[in-house]
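Dear colleague,

Thank you for sharing your sequence with our group. We've completed the structure prediction you requested, and as agreed, I am returning the results in plain text so they can be pasted directly into your records. Please verify that the sequence below matches your submission; if there's any discrepancy, let me know and we will rerun it promptly.
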Amino acid sequence: IDMESVAGGEIPCYGFRLRLVSRDGSRCALCQWYSCCVGCLIPCDDYPAIAMCGDSISIDWHLSVDLSSGGFGWKLGNKSESSGLSVQTSPHEKALIRVKKHSSINTGGKKYGYGGSITLEECLDSFAKEEKIEARCSKCQEERIQTNRICLWRFPPFVMIHLKRFQFTQHMKRKLRDLVVFPLEGLDLSRIVAPSSPAAKTDDDDAEADVTSQDGSDEDFVGGRFHPLSRDNCGRTESLYDLYGVVHHQGALTGGHYVASLKSEFDGKWRLFNDAQIYELLARDVIDPSAYILFYVRRDVKGATLEDFWDTHEREGEGLTEEEVEKLMKRDRCVIS
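Please find the predicted structure tokens below.
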């Protein structure tokens, strides 16, 4: 391992070499153990490499690439307080000028500071993407190619996003541990809202006409400004959402544990709730591969009460009387009191 060809030497074309090693990567797959070979080099050419069943291909990064990219955990150009080391990166950076950048270098790379991740916006775009399906026409009874797309018509006050973490196929089942980077504030759902149309405006006018009483006067509506029938609530104005809770699944497919991260409405801090234990949490630590269910609240709904959505006043002559409740309780069936 101390050989110059392993850790140093001339920098390869792409900054690394490929080596043929054993299954666990501890030795060369071709040479005998006493030769101390860490893995025979695979030529950098257009010809296919031959590997036996059970062999592995390892990536051998050049030492200069590790140093210039902080591969050893050192802060480049700064002096480490614990070790007293100062890494001079300028020679390595100059050496990396000859390294070529492949077209796939950004594939699976870092997005928003997270490596090998996808964003929640990308998931939403894929969820609302138009797809073609083959279905039978109810009129001509022939197979037709139709399009199907899932969109929002109104922005709901609260949104719960369930990430797909468990995959079941004909041949396998597993837990998906992909890191989904989701925004803590300002999730914009206007990207998946259906466009307005003249027909939709006509429907809205009809809905407003239903709220008006027969004598032409407005009905005494006390449902609150966020009520679905309220004229002040069109549901298509505010599209930004802020995160206030996350359910995490820790463990594997066959067994695991659920914890929750919640943002306090009093001090704005995030806390992790793990059974009877509660910990303060940094906002950036909420985003991790264990996130399972996301809870978002629409920005204009923050601070709203139940009266803003529904009429909570008691009305005479409506609802069940005490006699009717007792009658229901005596029936031989399961009821919730």
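Summary note from our side: The longest strand covers residues 240-251.

Kind regards,
the structure core
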